[in-house]
Structures are given as C-alpha cells and as structure tokens.
Amino acid sequence: MLTTFRIRRFNPEAESPQPYFQDYRLVTERSDTVLDALIRIRETVDESLTLRCSCRGAICGSCGMRINGHAALACKTKVASMAAPDETIHVEPMNNMPVIKDLVTDMAGFWEKIRQVQPWLQPAGPAPEGEYLAPPEAMNHLTGVMHCIMCGACVSDCAALEVNPDFVGPAALAKAYRFVADPRDGNSSSRLRELNDPGGMWDCTRCMECIEVCPKGVGAMDRIMALRAKGIEYGVPSTSGSRHTEAFADIIEQKGRLDEPMLAVRTFGLANLRQMFSFLPMILRALPRRKLPKSGPLFRPIPGIDRIRRLFQRAKEPR
Amino acid sequence: MKYAFFPGCVSKGGCPELYQSVKQVYPRLGIELEEMTTASCTGAGVLQEKDLRLGDILNAHTLALAEEQGLPIMTICSTCQGVMSQANHRLTTEPGYLDDINRVLAEEGLTYRGTTTVKHFVWILLEDVGEEKLRQAVKRPLTGLRAAPFYGCYIQRPSAALGFDEQPARAQSLETVITLLGAEVVDFPGKTRCCGMPLLTINEPGSLQMVAHHTSDAKEHGADVMVTPCPLCHLNLDGLQTKAAKQERRDIDLPILHLPQLLGLAMGLEPRALGLKRNLVPTTSVLEKLGVA
Hints:
The structure holds 2 protein chains of 2 kinds. Chain A has 3 domains: 2-105, Ubiquitin-like (UB roll), CATH 3.10.20; 108-234, Alpha-helical ferredoxin (Fumarate Reductase Iron-sulfur Protein, Chain B, domain 2, Orthogonal Bundle); 240-316, no CATH class. Chain A is α+β, with helices and mostly antiparallel strands. In chain A, helix 3 (108-116) packs parallel to helix 8 (170-180). In chain A, the strands form 2 sheets. In chain A, strands 2-1-5-3-4 form a 5-stranded mixed beta sheet. A two-stranded antiparallel sheet of chain A has the order 6-7. In chain A, strand 6 and strand 7 form a beta hairpin. Chain A is built from 16 helices and 7 strands. The relative contact order of chain A is 0.09. The mean pLDDT of chain A is 95. Chain A has helices at residues 34-45, 79-82, 108-116, 136-139, 143-146, 153-156, 159-163, 170-180, 188-195, 209-213, 220-234, 240-255, 260-268, 273-277, 280-286, 305-316, and strands at residues 2-9, 20-27, 64-67, 70-73, 88-92, 99-101, 104-105. The longest helix of chain A has 16 residues, at 240-255. By secondary structure, chain B is an alpha/beta fold. Chain B has helices at residues 16-25, 47-50, 52-69, 78-93, 97-106, 121-129, 131-137, 173-180, 204-220, 231-239, 241-247, 259-266, 284-290, and strands at residues 2-6, 32-35, 73-75, 118-120, 146-149, 184-185, 225-228, 256-258. Chain B has a 4-stranded parallel beta sheet. In chain B, helix 8 links the parallel strand 5 (146-149) and strand 6 (184-185). In chain B, helix 1 packs parallel to helix 12, helix 3 (52-69) crosses helix 4 and helix 3 crosses helix 5. The chains are: A alpha+beta, B alpha/beta.
C-alpha cells in the first residue's frame, strides 16, 4: 500500500534552524513497522533523515518517537495499524525533551531524573553471607515495573511535565517505586520523604497517558499512586496532595458522597488561605447561579451510609 | 432501555446543570432510569491514592447493587465511568481478587458475580439508543455550530479497561454525536488530554495553564463551543477559565457545554430548562449562533 509519512524535521546546523514537516510517499508491506519504513526512507530516498534505533525488536528502547500524536516504539508499531492505504502517518520526535536532530531527542534530562531517585538497592543492616534473599511472592508485583526499557515514551506524553519541567516524571517515579516496594531495600522512609518534595510523587496529574503509551505495560501512574499510598502509610509530612486524598476518603466515609466545599477547605487548610481566597471571584459568580453545593451539617449523608461506613472499617481489617 | 443511574457527586454538587439537563433529555430517547441513591462515590481516583482495595470494595458494592437489580449502570461523568470501569476490570480479570472483595461484601449479604456493565451516557447514545433514533430526536439541528470535543482522561485511558477493543467506536464517540446533532466537529490536539483538574491542589498555575491552553487552542482551531462528557473537566474548563485567562493574559471566553446540554439544544429544548444560564462562561454566543437567544 502507498503511505505518506509526514515527518517533523529539524536540522540544528541549518542557517536558521526551524522545525518543519516533510512528506515522503512510500510503498509499504503489511508486515512493515514504522521503523522499517523510516529506515527505507533513509536508505533509498533521503539519507539526511536522522533517527535512533538499535535492536528493532522492542528491547533496547532506542526508537521512541511520536506516531500520530502519541509516543511509541517505531519498531513495535505496524504501519498498517496506524493508517489505512493512502492515509498519512505523522511522525515526530518525543515531547518534553530537547530535539537534537529530526527524530533524535536528547535524553540527558531523562537520565538525570532517573539518577535523582537513586535507582539501586540500599539495604539496611549488615550484609548477609550470601545474596540478599526475597520470597517470590514479595517480588512478583514488581515484575511489571522491572520491564521498563527506559525508552522515554511515558515522559514524552506526560501532561504534568508539559506544565512543570521540574516534575521528576513517570519513568523515574516508577523506578522509585520498584525500590520502595522491594522488601530488601532499607531506605523506603527516606526515599518517600524525598519523593514527597515539590516536583515529586504528588505532582502527577493522573491523566494515564503514561499507562497508555508504555510499550512494556509498566503502568507508571499506577506505581505513582502506590507511592502516594506508601507515603501516607509511612506518615510523610502532609502536602496539599496528601491532605486532599485524606480529606476525600474521610468525607466519603462520613457522607458517602463528596462535600466539595469541605474538601477544598480541608485541602488548602489555614496555611493556604490566600490561595483559597483567590477562588472568591469564581464563588461569587457561582452563587447567583445556585451552583454552590451545600456543605458541612447542611450536606446530608446518602441513604444507607451505615453500610458504607462498615465497608470502610472492614477494608482496614487484615485479609 | 433501562439503567441503574449513577449521577456522581459533581452533577449533584458543583455542576447541577448537568443533572438538570440529563433529566430533560433521557426520557425523550426512550431511556428509563432508576437512580442509585445508596451507592457511594467511586473514589474518583483520589481515594484510590490512599487505598486502591478500599476503592474497589466501594465500587464492587455499587456493581453488586446494579447486578441485584438486573440493570446496567449509566454514568454521566468520564471520571465515574473510568474509575468504575477500572475497578470492574480488576475484579473480573485478576485471579482471586473478586473472591477477596466478595468476602467483605458477604457480611452485608451481597455478592458481586462480575456481570454488571457500566456505560457512559455518550456510549449509550451510540450503542443502545442508536444513530437512527438519535437522528429522529434532533428537532433543531446545530447547523453552523463548530463544536470542539473534550473527553476527559478517564473515558479515554486506559483503553484496555474501557472496552475499546470490543467497541472501537468509543474512542471517537463525542465526534460522532456532535456530527449526528448537525454541528461541525473541530478537531484539535488537546481533545484527549488532561484538563488540569487533578493538578489544581498541588500545582494551580500548571492546572490553569492547561485550561488556558486547551480552550484557546480549540478557539484558534475555530471552535464556537467546547463540549465535554466530564463534569470535573467542566469545573476546570468553565469554572476556572476566567482565572486561567487572567493568568495567561489571554482573552478566551469559550463556552463549555455538558454533552446533555448540547444534545438538549439539538432536541429543541429551552436553554433555561437545560441550565445554560448556570454555566460560568456565558453561553449566549452559542444560542445566538443557533438563533435561539
């Protein structure tokens, strides 16, 4: 079939370097991956097209790029799955990192953030005679996260990173979880305290882009949620993120549904009165529209709240 | 077409016009609803940050109540839909998990067998009401109106839990409905991105940046209006649009409609009955464009 590849190009050595799109029309086979097609373009049409790849088998994580708007491994993405015959496939470099040339991005920032979470085992106490042992059932849940090949797809499509480049990001947080939840690691408490800082585990916006684009099923956002749960369990200092979670759970236990004004008050707390007051113009516009929800004693629990409260209690009991 | 109706907290809280408008449109589509008054909040992905299993227990309770009624669940919130879909997916695919949760429910005399389906209103429109009936319900086609879809993360991802493999048309459901109502779809890159709502408490400037970016991007692509199936997105995109515009020093003023509001307009219903005066960004420009102001 004939496919058009609309590729975002960038040459830093051009006279006035500006990104631009260039179209290449190519006959592709059913079995072709996007990487096969790109290599063919480079070898037969335009040798200046620059891309990075190595294993061609979704193992090395080198060929991360955005295909039709989402990050993916070019070697794992079939042309036929991305476009019907005569349709156009958009190929761009990964987002949230600087472009070196064409489809090649600079991963230095990615690696720096991975190093930031100290991705190595830090056992406590004296070293054992032999190896550090852990029962399989304590490690099984970590196999998914260990599949990470550091391709950067999750980082590329992370919505929180787009508005906060200091956010440590999904790949590093998934890696952090891998050690926090490892029974052989003795440093979980201090790891969690560091992850509790601004730019850490509470800065994820829960958009699930990282889960969707990961070629290896790491489920980074699920690991970030698990880190937050561990943080609360370990009693890390409260943040507006953790207060929001704790208040949310309390309100549902008491009322069965959400008392929104109460959630806001308990999240921002007295320490953030200024931020709370900044929402006043919105509240004043909501009032005449009868949009301000009831709160506190005026907000009645749902019928059958006793059952919901019992379910909360039972969830705390050992299984 | 009868459903156990799960309205969600926000349609009864910060976005009452959503509840109001869905009540106006559903009877005209041959839908019957029985509201689930004893079901709890889904946890919205927030409670799950503290205790995922507790969230699954609460949602299994809701799913079991619907199963007892012999009804599928209808949601009107992307977040409720996604959180319940994910819980249902875990309960029905992870070996032994349903038994674990059922041991907790058993003390309430309940069991969940794993048979309840949960569907957002936008999916029901296409899969159950059907295009033919929907077309017939349109009394005032939205001709000339340019509408940008905005989905909300939870109704797009993770696709494995949302039945996209079995029902691939779900990924484009808003565009399909907008077209059936006679309006023109304004496609823009932000339609499946995050509205910024979950970031609001920890990074308000970032959250508002997302609001300003998506709304102005849709507008630059020619949108007269944005339509969303998620009241949480609506809280941010409508409720905080003025604040976001101020922060980013832009004029935006893009009306954000709940899906049933847009549907109601196409059905010829009165704007007041659909709660259109309750949206914080004025919707007058939409009504003028349709000649109903």
